């Protein structure tokens, strides 16, 4: 077994270390020669995951053809904005038997294409899948107990990912709901920005709990309209990822919201952060799609007004406290449960 990770950001680097720590050789591909030279010199990815040496079986490379053509399993972990371009570049070097898995939590503008849909379009002969969950790269690299979800319609792909990932500190669960798992990873970034704003405003824990819970309701509502299973959001790829991203200072989207609530403009906050916050792009695309589908998402809409229409941060609180008071859990089926008499 040989694995390639396409994209040497913090998560891609953490994936490379997990795989190679299990004894599986892994290519870690990057485009930037400067980054490559620095990794070769210092033995770690100081730009994105400083302080965590690369495992012995990780091979950094600038040679995309080498990494792709020699590998049985490929993880693509580049940002969503460049995902299609990267997949097109990758295509000539990938055989039809190669498993290709997206580790990118985002969507493509303007039509809200998911990364799995891009893989299906550009690599139509390959078995494809996605991984998503509460997977903060720094914690994975530090050996903290972590779980993720691999979703695919190909059971062999799921088995393969579970084999190369599973360890004493990393658990991999499986799902067939590719779109649900993927939408969980993308949508939660929107609400992490909201929770970063709330943290800077020093709201109480009651408020945080309500924010996260109503965020989950919006996410599952939107996902069902997109053809995903809303029950997927009760697992690691939904509530698990939402919870960690909305509460951890290590989350880039949380940090973005925190800075904006401190008086920074969106561009200033992004410049200070120095790393891509996928929630900004996702919010713009979801705003358009939500209107087309007629999905009720007051928190997401309030954040859109704040980031792109010079709205007041108070709108986020207003959206939380003045929204419709309907069913608490919209997808509880009376056919499977009923209240006692």
From TrEMBL:
The record's listing under InterPro entries reads: 6-PGluconate_DH-like_C_sf, 6PGD_dom2, G3P_DH_NAD-dep, G3P_DH_NAD-dep_C, G3P_DH_NAD-dep_N, NAD(P)-bd_dom_sf
Q: Which Pfam families match?
A: NAD_Gly3P_dh_C, NAD_Gly3P_dh_N
Protein keywords = NAD, Oxidoreductase
**Residue stretches making up the Glycerol-3-phosphate dehydrogenase NAD-dependent C-terminal domain:** 177-317
Q: Name one GO molecular function term.
A: NAD binding
Q: A Gene Ontology biological process annotation?
A: glycerophospholipid biosynthetic process
Leader peptide range in chain numbering: none
Keyword field contains Oxidoreductase: yes
Q: Which residues form the Glycerol-3-phosphate dehydrogenase NAD-dependent N-terminal domain?
A: 2-155
Gene Ontology terms: cellular component: cytosol
Family membership, please give it.
Belongs to the NAD-dependent glycerol-3-phosphate dehydrogenase family.
HAMAP family per the UniProt record, alphabetical: NAD_Glyc3P_dehydrog
* Record's protein name: Glycerol-3-phosphate dehydrogenase NAD-dependent N-terminal domain-containing protein
Please spell out the taxonomic lineage of the organism that makes this protein. unclassified sequences, metagenomes, ecological metagenomes
